[in-house]
Amino acid sequence: MNSAAPGQLIDGKAVAAQVLAEVTADVITLKIEGIEPALAVVLVGDDPASHVYVRNKVLRAGEAGIRSLEYRLPAEASAAEVLALVAELNGDASVHGILVQLPLPRHIDETAVLQAIDPAKDVDGFHSENVGGLSQGRDVLVPCTPAGCMRLLRDTLGDLAGKHAVVIGRSNIVGKPMAALLLAADCTVTVLHSRSKNAQALCRKADIVVAAVGRPRMIDAEWIKPGAVVIDVGINRIEEDGKSRLVGDVDFAKVQPLTAAITPVPGGVGPMTIALLMQNTVTAARQQHARQAASGTSLQAATQ
């Protein structure tokens, strides 16, 4: 779809299903070539939300034909134990993707653990080598949520070149990589954050708004230019009318009538994150196999 009808919903579930169908086809091709993509998921502790996320990731992997391995460590596990497990998975050639579910218990340094993952197996795209490579425009594993947002934008708008995109939020997981991906797509990019001045006025100039600030319904109609496309990354649980509800960073009811297209919460960006994780796993498997093949060819040439 290259043009958006007024106020249309961007159906993240439908696009995620399409991505997973593409991944499934790629997995079949890889298996014919003798490659079985495998994803290792490491869960430390008893965080209920983390357990739900891991279960969903394992389910999606199975549906796509990706072999999944689960490693569950108790909350009192030491940093050394977690790092030892990561090192073991790094050295296992049958494992193509490693995901350490965040958050980790407070006594474990998350940065140290993420940095310990082989960048070639870093399917979350959080290792500094992948972060730096993204900024340089290299072909690296990209964080799943921003990559999912880009797929939604391209499916909605087609070519993004020349469009003014505003990213609200500057987190390492969403805001910063989102800005880098939009720049790579030849957008003009503005990043707004808690210290930005005239944030509303700046946002009202945007053709594309990506809200990733973590504040429920912060972005209302005053922030949006008529005809903008809005991607709402926020997932906030609030109590309203005696019920627990999931809402985004965007005040959907007020903003939707102004937009050309907008993601709902839930059902927008969320499903895309897991779908792109599966895509990253297949990409990692293909790249690792290509490197191994090239290395074998080089070794054979050197011995002749």
Q: What does this protein look like?
A:
- The protein has 304 residues and is an alpha/beta fold.
- Helices cover 44% and strands 16% of the residues.
- Among the domains are: 35-118, Rossmann fold (3-Layer(aba) Sandwich); 143-270, NAD(P)-binding Rossmann-like Domain (Rossmann fold), CATH 3.40.50.720.
- The protein has ten helices and eleven strands.
- The longest helix has 35 residues, at 269-303.
- It is globular.
- It starts with 7 loop residues before the first strand and ends with a helix.
- It catalyses: (6R)-5,10-methylene-5,6,7,8-tetrahydrofolate + NADP(+) = (6R)-5,10-methenyltetrahydrofolate + NADPH; (6R)-5,10-methenyltetrahydrofolate + H2O = (6R)-10-formyltetrahydrofolate + H(+).
- Catalyzes the oxidation of 5,10-methylenetetrahydrofolate to 5,10-methenyltetrahydrofolate and then the hydrolysis of 5,10-methenyltetrahydrofolate to 10-formyltetrahydrofolate.
- Its EC number is 1.5.1.5, 3.5.4.9.
- It comes from Geopseudomonas sagittaria.
What labels describe this entry?
Rossmann fold, single chain, 3-stranded parallel sheet, 6-stranded parallel sheet, 304 residues
By secondary-structure content and strand pairing, the structural class works out as alpha/beta
Q: What oligomeric assembly is this protein in?
A: single chain
**Uncertain runs with pLDDT below 50, 5 residues or more?**
none
Radius of gyration: 20 Å
What is the class of the domain at 143-270 in the CATH system? Answer: Alpha Beta
Q: Label the CATH architecture of the domain at 143-270.
A: 3-Layer(aba) Sandwich
Largest sheet: 6 strands, parallel
Helix amount, in percent?
A: 40-55%
Order of helices and strands: EHEHEHEHHHEHEHEEEEHEH
What's the CATH topology name of the domain at 143-270?
Answer: Rossmann fold
Integer average pLDDT:
94
